[in-house]
């Protein structure tokens, strides 16, 4: 009886530690976003006041100033949306076809090809930014959204192919073969059978691909100017040698973060299912 009570006590202590560290982890993760949100409503006096103002008065001056008038950041937000959505769409289309070919068809040196695809993703973008700049200049794609979309597709495609190949392998091949016997072509089998079954994987891959494009700074900073500038580049311009406009940076950064938070919450269920499905390999 005594040993049973000791076992229950140790289990309760262990669970208490787990909950404690989980709460600490959540608070540490949320605090930067919370600090950013509160700072976006402060003026410069409140930002630098000591002791700090933890609960500022809610006012929208910073947002109105940054997203209205001649110096509005709204065009840069639209550029980020356009580049992110279009690059994600084309990355998924190309990535699905490539991943399906790797997952379903016999390809010579398949393992080596998969590793080569993944190794391209490991390459730091800064290592190729100068050649990319020269290529974009040769094709007259500097400061154009089309050039940045091509670069983002090239950056995200290895990740999408690698992840989707795992998802497609987890789908029973017998289901597709039954569709082929019923008269479907391989492409029809992919569209009508495999893609609906891989919907959680597609949702997971698309949100990660969009996030990579949405947050990408280096290529956008080097390859764009006034016309195709994205919001991360606009945020980086609040910092200068003479001052940092914290209040404007916080307001614009909150606008930059909100779409990702909303999309993540909307498809959270699919992301969890997709990550679980991708963990199973034949």
Task: Outline the structure in words.
It is a single chain. The chain is mainly α and 282 residues long. 74% of the residues lie in helices and 0% in strands. It has 14 helices and no strands. The chain has helices spanning 2-39, 44-47, 61-66, 74-104, 110-122, 129-138, 145-169, 173-181, 186-197, 199-215, 218-223, 231-236, 246-266, 268-278. Helix 1 (2-39) crosses helix 13 (246-266), helix 4 crosses helix 10 (199-215) and helix 10 (199-215) crosses helix 14 (268-278). The protein is flat and about 70 Å long. The mean pLDDT is 86.
Protein topology:
Layout: H1 2-39, H2 44-47, H3 61-66, H4 74-104, H5 110-122, H6 129-138, H7 145-169, H8 173-181, H9 186-197, H10 199-215, H11 218-223, H12 231-236, H13 246-266, H14 268-278
Number of DSSP-assigned strands:
0
The largest sheet, given as strand count, sense and whether it forms a barrel, is:
none
Structural class estimated from helices and strands: mainly alpha
**What is the chain-wise order of helices and strands?**
HHHHHHHHHHHHHH
Rounded radius of gyration (Å): 24 Å
Specify the overall morphology.
flat
Q: What portion of residues belong to β-strands?
A: under 5%
């Amino acid at each position: 009886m005594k040993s049973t009570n000791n076992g229950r006590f140790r289990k309760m202590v262990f669970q208490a530690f787990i909950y404690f560290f989980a709460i600490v982890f959540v608070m540490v993760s949320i605090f930067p976003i919370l600090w950013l949100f509160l700072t976006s409503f402060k003026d410069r006096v409140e930002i630098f006041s000591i002791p700090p103002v933890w609960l500022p008065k809610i006012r929208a001056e910073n947002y109105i100033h940054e997203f209205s008038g001649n110096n509005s950041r709204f065009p840069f937000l639209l550029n980020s949306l356009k580049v992110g959505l279009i690059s994600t769409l084309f990355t998924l289309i190309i990535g699905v076809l490539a991943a399906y070919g790797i997952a379903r068809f016999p390809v010579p040196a398949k393992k080596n090809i998969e590793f080569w695809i993944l190794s391209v993703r490991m390459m730091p973008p800064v290592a190729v930014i100068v050649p990319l700049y020269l290529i974009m200049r040769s094709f007259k794609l500097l400061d154009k959204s089309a050039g940045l979309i091509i670069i983002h597709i090239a950056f995200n495609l290895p990740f999408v192919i690698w992840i989707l190949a795992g998802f497609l392998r987890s789908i029973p091949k017998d289901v597709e073969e039954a569709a082929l016997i019923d008269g479907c072509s391989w492409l029809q089998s992919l569209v009508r059978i495999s893609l609906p079954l891989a919907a959680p994987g597609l949702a997971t891959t698309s949100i990660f691909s969009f996030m990579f494009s949405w947050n990408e700074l280096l290529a956008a900073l080097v390859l764009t100017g006034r016309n195709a500038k994205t919001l991360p580049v606009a945020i980086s311009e609040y910092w200068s040698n003479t001052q940092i406009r914290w209040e404007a940076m916080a307001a614009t950064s909150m606008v930059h973060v909100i779409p990702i938070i909303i999309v993540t919450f909307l498809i959270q269920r699919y992301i969890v299912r997709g990550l679980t499905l991708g963990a199973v390999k034949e």
